[in-house]
Write a structure and sequence with these properties.
single chain; alpha+beta; five-stranded antiparallel beta sheet; two-stranded antiparallel sheet; 4 helices
Length: 213
């Protein structure tokens, strides 16, 4: 399946260990109640700096240097005549980790990461889960005066990958299991290793499972 034609100040997120495929039916009430309370408040404007056309991936102007590096790597892979899906899976997993665990650039607790990377239909459950756990302690930064110390991911290393078959919504989908570890600008007690499962739906890969030790 490797080729396809076509274009402790911090809170450990062990509590957010999740299988997105199990959470498809869960609600997002906590997240949306919070969002309603915040919707009239002014927020920092986030601009899209770059996008990979026909794939739906974007890079924001606020994203870190390592995020930009991995995004450019993904762009190189996806714009080749033949897409190497195992390499695609590795880079997508790294982008997911950087976006999820870099809390420093998030505006507030409802500023959710990784929505471009997760399996369609799991967005609400994903946001509700994060808002109830790791993201709930993020202080508001609409005025850019936040003093709170939050994690910044500096680098992600792929330890290994293998092909897998995963059942999602009664579909048996091919994909990859990617093992990773990462480092922070400062260790604030957040996770440093995970195993990510991504599956192929049509031409794209999506994260469906994250396991942390």
């Amino acid at each position: 399946m490797k080729k396809s034609k076509g274009k402790k100040a911090g809170m450990s997120s062990k509590y957010i260990t999740f299988a997105l495929i199990v959470m498809l039916a869960l609600g997002g009430s906590a997240y949306f109640i919070h969002n309603i309370l915040q919707e009239d408040a002014p927020v920092n404007k986030v601009e899209i700096a770059k996008e990979i056309k026909d794939w739906g991936y974007t890079l924001d102007d606020r994203d870190s240097a390592v995020m930009k590096t991995y995004f450019n790597e993904l762009n190189d892979v996806l714009t080749k005549e033949e897409v190497d899906y195992e390499t695609y899976a590795k880079i997508l997993s790294k982008l997911y980790i950087v976006d999820l665990y870099t809390l420093n650039n998030k505006i507030n607790a409802s500023d959710m990461p990784c929505l471009e990377y997760i399996y369609p239909g799991t967005e609400t459950s994903f946001k509700n889960n994060l808002f109830s756990t790791m993201y709930r302690s993020i202080e508001d930064n609409k005025d850019k005066k936040r003093k709170q110390k939050l994690p910044i991911v500096l680098d992600v290393e792929v330890l290994g990958s293998k092909e897998v078959e995963t059942k999602v919504k009664d579909k048996e989908l091919s994909g990859y299991e990617v093992s990773l570890k990462w480092t922070y600008q400062e260790d604030l007690g957040y996770d440093q290793e995970a195993i990510i499962t991504v599956v192929k739906l049509d031409k794209k890969l999506y994260v469906v499972i994250q396991k942390v030790d």
